[in-house]
Amino acid sequence: LSICSRTVEPLEYYRRFLKENCRPDGRELGEFRTTTVNIGKCLCSITTADGSALVKLGNTTVICGVKAELAAPAVDSANKGYIVPNVELPSLCAERFRSGPPGEEAQAASQFIADVIENSQMIVKEDLCIANGKLAWVLYCDIICLDYDGNLLDASVFALLAALKNVQLPLVTISEETGLSEVNLKQKNPLIIRKHPVATSFAIFDDTLLIVDPTAEEEDLATGTVTIVTDEEGRLCSVHKPGGSPLTGAKLQDCITRAITRHKEVKKLIDKVIKSITPK
């Protein structure tokens, strides 16, 4: 298989591999790239964050920093805090992205993350309220892609979850005498995380063939993509399918089954890393 054919006829080049149930990078169709996660202050670039994580999915590298600030709750949600996710795709992470305001892909990814937070109930906004109608936490979740090689959504959800599990919030009370907030930095508590959503993405080739964890090249050649988000109970939190090839019920069920298996792997990885950084 010459390099020339990959450049001139990339789809035909891929089809030759897919017929043999493998991919040009040596993976099987249902095989994920090597996945690693680093959590916490080892990330010197964002030491100002209250929680941080770096996730690598093959070459795709995503960093997430969570910053907690205090604010007044919205009038119509007096007992709720806020979660504000933002995905950035800087021009440094791949040639396809340009400097300037967020492009369509970054905006779509930010909306996807917001939907996952809402649908999975990973954080219940009522848990972020400190004093009803007076004070609540705002969590700014900045997800920045450092190196883009496909499957941004899986890496982003993973980095977000890992970073949130690293957040420690100081105890905040409101003084009865002055009515002002008092922050006790010596007494910190972890964020209450109710659910652990994990995303699993697939590329669809020639309308029928499913491959997991696609690279950027595979995404470009695919006739569609689908991302399944599940929680630790195997509950379906989200199905994200931006157009492309339709999926039969059987194929979708197959994706969900694989996503549930993937969830166990990711959760095990996070738990292992958190255990290794927790003071004995």
UniProtKB/TrEMBL annotation:
Keywords: Acetylation, Cytoplasm, Exosome, Nucleus, RNA-binding, rRNA processing. GO terms for molecular function: mRNA 3'-UTR AU-rich region binding. CDD domains: RNase_PH_RRP43. Pfam families: RNase_PH, RNase_PH_C. It is found in: Cytoplasm; Nucleus, Nucleolus. Residues 31-170, 197-260 form the Exoribonuclease phosphorolytic domain. The keyword Transmembrane helix does not apply. Coiled coil: none annotated. GO terms for cellular component: cytoplasmic exosome (RNase complex); nuclear exosome (RNase complex); nucleolus. One of its GO terms (biological process) is U5 snRNA 3'-end processing. PANTHER family: EXOSOME COMPLEX COMPONENT RRP43, EXOSOME COMPLEX EXONUCLEASE RIBOSOMAL RNA PROCESSING PROTEIN. Belongs to the RNase PH family. This is Exosome complex component RRP43. It comes from Calcarius ornatus. The gene is Exosc8.
